[in-house]
Design goal:
alpha+beta, six-stranded antiparallel sheet, 12 strands, about 20% strand
């Protein structure tokens, strides 16, 4: 009887030991959530861990979809691996949210464990954990509340900026106008050392021109240049306003303001333009053409001399 009891006890201990070993070699899947009651749109952390012995299984981890019934997957963490005491633990955290009010179960994901030495696949599912999704409790006090605290707003007064900008603009305009009218001022008449009258000085200079030889090209160029200068200088002294730097075209426009007869203006234009051709185009006129220019300039000077005094131009 005693021998039979001892034999039975040994068999029981062996069976218990084998069951422990078999249990220790089976994979274990656990599921956790950080909260079971959330507001609509609030997020929860859905954590899955799987523990299995090293070298026994090949694990095929689940691939969560973008959305499941009543829940939206916001984020998925990487799968963390921890090895200790001949076991391996896979861990992943999935962030969920829901926009449907009610009591809903979290999705159940399948994890496949393929034994290395066996063809039988072990399929384990994560837990479906109920989660209450609701609205915020209604406020029954009927008191108005600000969404945000009242913030003091500083209003900057730009009045003096506008005043300063306007003054600066007026100052710039004034400077530009001053420079414009300053540049339009009449050129001062160069100081003349001659004690002769404008007419007598012009006639004397005209007589000096006759000393030039019009058969020499260099004298012809000097002849016409001096003829133009004599006329401009006479008009400048006559009206006390220098036109020495004006072009031939400007001189003609200038003369029209003094109401000269058209014939006189034409004579001046012919003489001055022929002088420009000699000076700039190296044109060599006939002696008779040069003498004709001389006579026309002299005639205009005499006409101005015998006419009323020329008013000083505003140009």
């Amino acid at each position: 009887m005693i021998k039979y009891s001892i034999k039975y006890l040994k068999i029981t201990l062996l069976l218990f030991l084998f069951s422990k070993i078999g249990f220790a070699q089976s994979p274990v899947v656990k599921t956790f959530v950080d909260k079971s009651d959330i507001l609509i749109g609030e997020q929860i952390k859905y954590k899955v861990t799987a523990t299995f012995p090293d070298g026994v299984f090949k694990v095929h981890w689940f691939m969560p979809p973008d959305s499941v019934a009543h829940f939206e997957i916001v984020d998925r963490s990487k799968i963390d691996t921890v090895s200790a005491n001949n076991t391996t633990t896979f861990e992943q955290t999935i962030t969920l949210t829901s926009f449907d009010s009610g009591r809903w179960n979290t999705p159940a994901f399948k994890i496949n464990f393929d034994p290395v030495k066996d063809d039988t696949t072990l399929n384990l599912f994560t837990d479906s954990i109920p989660v209450n999704v609701g609205y915020a409790a209604a406020d029954t006090t009927n008191e108005l509340r600000d969404i945000k605290p009242i913030m003091e707003v500083t209003v900057k007064d730009y009045f003096w900026y506008y005043i300063g900008g306007g003054i600066l603009l007026l100052l710039i305009i004034a400077i530009m106008l001053w420079r414009y009218f300053k540049n339009r001022k009449k050129a001062p008449l160069p100081i003349s050392s001659s004690k002769l009258s404008p007419y007598d000085e012009a006639m004397q200079n005209m007589e000096n021109l006759k000393t030039l030889n019009l058969q020499k090209p260099e004298d012809v160029k000097q002849y016409h240049a001096r003829l133009s200068e004599i006329f401009k200088w006479y008009v400048s002294r006559r009206q006390q306003f220098s036109i020495m730097n004006k072009t031939s075209g400007d001189v003609l426009v200038h003369l029209t303001e003094f109401r000269l007869p058209n014939e006189q203006v034409t004579n001046v234009a012919t003489a001055l333009r022929l002088g420009d051709a000699v000076k700039f185009a190296k044109f060599v006129p006939l002696i008779t053409e040069s003498e004709e220019c001389y006579n026309k300039i002299k005639e205009v000077i005499q006409f101005i001399h015998t006419s009323k005094p020329i008013n000083q131009s505003t140009n």
